[in-house]
Amino acid sequence: AQRVTQPEKLLSVFKGAPVELKCNYSYSGSPELFWYVQYSRQRLQLLLRHISRESIKGFTADLNKGETSFHLKKPFAQEEDSAMYYCALQPFSGNTGKLIFGQGTTLQVKP
Amino acid sequence: EAGVAQSPRYKIIEKRQSVAFWCNPISGHATLYWYQQILGQGPKLLIQFQNNGVVDDSQLPKDRFSAERLKGVDSTLKIQPAKLEDSAVYLCASSSQRSYGYTFGSGTRLTVV
């Protein structure tokens, strides 16, 4: 079965602390993986995609096929990072195709 | 570029009534998606269109939900009759082969009472 699991509903850290949002997936093939973010009163938007291997707003995510994980990390959290974060899996390669989302993790960065 | 437009933003209806949502994707985006997001859960795909053809509607409750995308541009999603468990945010998104990632609309928050 294709599934994305985000084990933490809420992650609360202090400003300047490291952040790691966990994501595990279940899929037999080679999926594409994404992190989407939703800031307060804003639309759901793409944060980063594993195939790009880029850092966005200081966030990075490494695909670990052995552990079937795609954790999102940032060395020093900022208050503006407070938002809901969703990990998503796309079973098929290419730029179009359904996404399977995890349940989301709320990141709260305290001053 | 203009974003994905959705209307209405909010809708409250009684159970067994019908409701329709509208979506206008980004110009030139051939692929359009409708997702349902129940409170506390991640979005779940209801239906995917490629131009005006259906690619995936395996999770659409076809006894009460229907969707169409005439002329491969705008799309409407209808629920008839609505149930209490249909209370959710309905998200529309679009994507194209030329750029990666979806662009989501603001969503329609449906409350069935």
Unreliable spans of chain A are: none
Give the helices and strands of chain A as they follow along the chain: EEEEEEEEEEE
Can you tell me the overall shape of chain B?
Answer: globular
What structural class do helix, strand and pairing data of chain A support?
mainly beta
Query: Mean of residue pLDDT of chain A?
Result: 91
What's the alpha carbon Rg of chain B, rounded to whole Å? Answer: 13 Å
Task: Tag the structure with descriptive keywords.
A: 111 residues; mainly beta; six-stranded mixed sheet; 11 strands; globular; B: mainly beta; seven-stranded mixed sheet
Structure in words:
The complex is a heterodimer of chains A (111) and B (113). With 111 residues, chain A is an all-beta fold. Chain A has strands spanning 3-5, 10-14, 19-21, 24-26, 32-38, 45-49, 60-64, 69-74, 83-90, 100-101, 105-110. In chain A, strands 2, 5, 6, 9, 10 and 11 form a six-stranded mixed sheet that branches. Chain A has a three-stranded antiparallel sheet with strand order 3-8-7, with no helix packed on it. In chain A, strand 5 (32-38) and strand 6 (45-49) form a beta hairpin. The termini of chain A are far apart. The mean pLDDT of chain A is 91. Chain B has 113 residues and is mainly β. Chain B has no helices and eleven strands. In chain B, the strands form two sheets. In chain B, strands 2, 4, 5, 6, 9, 10 and 11 form a seven-stranded mixed sheet that branches. In chain B, strands 1-3-8-7 form a four-stranded antiparallel sheet, with no helix packed on it. In chain B, strand 4 (31-37) and strand 5 form a beta hairpin. The termini of chain B are far apart. The relative contact order of chain B is 0.34. Chain A binds chain B through residues 4, 34, 43-46, 49, 52, 86, 88, 94-104, and chain B through 3, 30-31, 33, 40-45, 48, 50, 56, 91, 95-107.
Summarize the structure.
The complex is a heterodimer of chains A (111) and B (113). Chain A is mainly β and 111 residues long.
